[in-house]
Design goal:
Layout (H helix, E strand, L loop, with lengths): L6 E7 L3 H9 L1 H8 L2 E5 L6 E5 L5 E10 L3 E6 L3 E2 L2 E2 L4 E11 L2 E11 L1 E2 L2 E2 L5 E4 L11 E4 L2
Antiparallel strand pairs: 1-9, 2-3, 3-4, 4-5, 5-8, 6-7, 8-9, 10-11, 12-13
């Protein structure tokens, strides 16, 4: 994703907001949205999401916002490539749900975020934990501090 790129899309679904929320926050449903398996989903701020592609490669994300049933946001964590973190690690993805006369309007915004050296610039301080049983080559766990 280009460092200045921002993608925004709005879609209206003819169902209630709770039904759309469930489709975004259940691993099997979220897998359908992204076209890759959601192996785990900790639906809480500072929770983790683990995605696994058909090639077996894992990609992790850090949950930032859970405001049921209105907003859900996460940040893709840096991925290892050739033994080091990518310089353009990913983006912030936010889902905003609004009730409208036709049902539920879902706005999805994806915007890049940056690494400063090897330190991730985020909205809150972070600590990095090197705990098991993460698979080999997985990015370190990152936990938001209160």
């Amino acid at each position: 994703m280009d460092a200045k790129a921002r993608v925004e899309k709005r879609v209206v679904f003819p169902v209630g907001r709770r039904e759309v929320w469930a489709a975004l926050t259940r691993p099997d449903e979220l897998s359908s949205w992204f076209g890759i398996d959601v192996v785990s989903l900790e639906l809480r701020p500072a929770g983790r999401i683990v995605f696994r592609g058909a090639d077996g490669a894992s990609r992790r994300a850090l949950v930032e916002i859970v405001d049921e049933p209105a907003r859900f946001a996460f940040r893709w964590l840096p991925a290892l490539a050739g033994g080091r973190f990518d310089r353009l690690p990913g983006s912030r993805v936010e889902f905003v749900l609004e009730e409208v006369p036709e049902g539920t309007a879902l706005t999805v915004v994806e915007a890049p975020w940056v690494l400063v050296g090897e330190i991730v610039r985020m909205a809150a301080p972070v600590i990095v934990e090197g705990t098991l049983p993460d698979p080999l080559g997985a990015p370190p766990r990152i936990t938001m501090l209160a």
